[in-house]
Design goal:
The complex is a heterodimer of chains A (325) and B (142). With 325 residues, chain A is mainly alpha-helical. Chain A has helices spanning 2-22, 24-35, 44-63, 67-78, 83-107, 113-140, 142-162, 176-181, 203-220, 225-235, 240-265, 270-291, 296-319, and strands at residues 184-189, 194-199. Chain A has a two-stranded antiparallel ribbon. Chain A is globular and about 60 Å long. By secondary structure, chain B is mostly helical. The chains are: A mainly alpha (325), B mainly alpha (142).
């Protein structure tokens, strides 16, 4: 009985997602992008954007990715907004999601402040530089950003598809910096019903990676969960649960600094921003509930395909090839 | 609850305070977004930029858009709070300021504990976020 319900939920979800992402909105939005979106009443766009982001919110939770990484390539590919506005709102979307998730993760001691603070300082500093560089490049020629965004999304897709996380990595030698910063702790693993002690290593190398993560997050307006988790988990050796939760919390700091740069530049138009933020957050809440009855793996594969397509489309758009419409 | 078995698995005090401030802030921020957006769409307050002007120009780069719509950058929106569209910035800015507020509480806690390394990190982060928020970096452009 439960299986029948689960299967029908999966089918329903995929149908909705395919319907929304592939047919009417995408086709219409692409057409409107050519026209500049000027022949529709103003209220049409907030409504379409709200439902689009609502579906993205469900997908993001079920696929285990952040909202920003889906929002920026898909909205820039299928809506008539300039990439400047999409990146500004994309950061606000990722920021709002991270702020909402933060309290629960901190209280359960899964997001670790001692681990997050040093890397957040590096990532947020460099996300400012990334944001300024991104805005400078798009002022020169927005196609540069489109092509680079597309290439980045294709790489992210490969990372999501092929990276193998480690549940509880073994750290034999804590390095001196990790020791001085007190990076480590204990958390309660509900599944295994045990306390798990953890610590980290390779701190210098990991901090360098957060320089790159900050730059990319700021330049393209992407939340950086896709990069935070592998670095925290595979490179630093933090347990997967700690890495995922700390990564989500980290976004609330990294994205804040980059979001300020875009917001001060005027890249957040409320007519676009508010329905995106609210739609994605409500979708995420529903996604958490659906997670219990649907098969996230199937949704994950679907999201990987959609992301790959969005990345290729961004490259196609930036290069002006017109192969993907 | 089993977490009682090992006090080390409980979150640190400053972590709980951070979470408590954040949860209140997020709900206030979302409520502000919702209310100000409703005011904006209902037309209760006049808009600085006409809706049709937005939809015909949002495919242009930000510098061109700001010029056409005569919109401010940086903190210039504060002088336009009597308009429905820029009223929405209250909720957006409130959410973006939450992290700085939480860090101020953290800084106080780390100083009280004489944890100078983390107090320094928190202080530097406040500086970075304040600099980003100030509008001194890259808010020009037209």
């Amino acid at each position: 009985m439960l299986n029948v319900f689960r299967n029908s939920t999966n089918r329903l979800l995929v149908t909705i997602v395919v319907f929304v992402l592939s047919c009417p909105i995408s086709a219409f939005a692409t057409e409107q992008a050519v026209l500049g979106g000027g022949d529709k009443p103003w209220w049409f766009w907030p409504i379409v954007l709200f439902f689009f982001c609502f579906i993205l919110g469900i997908l993001a939770v079920m696929a285990g990715v952040g909202g920003g990484v889906l929002y920026v390539p898909l909205v820039s590919g299928f809506f008539p907004f300039h990439i400047d506005f999409v990146r500004g709102v994309g950061l606000m979307v990722a920021l709002a999601g991270a702020l909402a998730a933060g309290p629960g993760l901190l209280r359960r001691n899964l997001a670790n402040l001692r681990l997050a603070l040093p890397v957040a300082l590096i990532a947020s500093t460099f996300s400012i530089i990334g944001a300024m560089l991104g805005l400078y490049l798009s002022a020169l020629n927005p196609d540069i950003i489109q092509v680079c965004l597309g290439a980045t999304i294709v790489c992210i897709t490969a990372l999501i598809a092929f990276s193998k996380n480690s549940e509880k990595p073994i750290v034999t030698n804590q390095d001196a910096i990790s020791h001085a910063l007190g990076l480590g702790g204990v958390y309660w693993d509900e599944g295994a019903r045990e306390n798990v002690e953890w610590t980290t290593h390779r701190t210098i190398l990991s901090m360098f990676m957060f320089v790159l993560i900050g730059l990319v997050a700021g330049m393209f307006g992407l939340g950086a969960g896709w990069a935070n988790v592998p670095v925290l988990n595979l490179m630093m050796g933090a347990p997967l649960k700690i890495s995922v939760a700390t990564s989500k919390f980290l976004l609330s700091i990294t994205d804040t600094s980059a979001a300020w740069i875009y917001m001060n530049r005027g890249c957040v138009i409320p007519l676009i921003g508010v329905p995106s933020i609210v739609g994605l957050m409500l979708g995420s809440l529903l996604g958490v509930k659906l997670l219990a009855i649907a098969k996230p793996k199937m949704i994950r594969y679907f999201v990987i395909v959609v992301l790959l397509f969005a990345g290729l489309k961004a490259m196609d758009k930036g290069l002006g090839l017109g192969i993907l419409g | 609850m089993d977490t009682q078995a090992n006090p080390a698995s409980r979150p640190a005090k400053e972590q709980v305070i951070y979470a408590n401030i954040l949860v209140i802030g997020v709900w206030i921020g979302l409520a502000l977004l919702f209310v100000t957006y409703a005011i904006y769409l209902s037309g209760l307050m006049p808009s600085h930029v006409d809706m049709s002007l937005i939809t015909t120009n949002w495919d242009k780069g930000v510098n061109e858009y700001l010029e056409i719509t005569n919109s401010p950058h940086g903190w210039g929106w504060t002088s336009l709070l009597a308009t429905g569209d820029f009223l929405n910035y209250i909720g957006l800015v409130f959410l973006a300021l939450m992290t700085v507020v939480c860090y101020l509480v953290l800084l106080k806690g780390y100083i009280a504990k004489k944890d100078w390394i983390y107090a320094s990190i928190a202080f530097l982060e406040i500086l970075v976020l304040s600099l980003a928020a100030s509008g001194l970096l890259g808010s020009g452009g037209h």
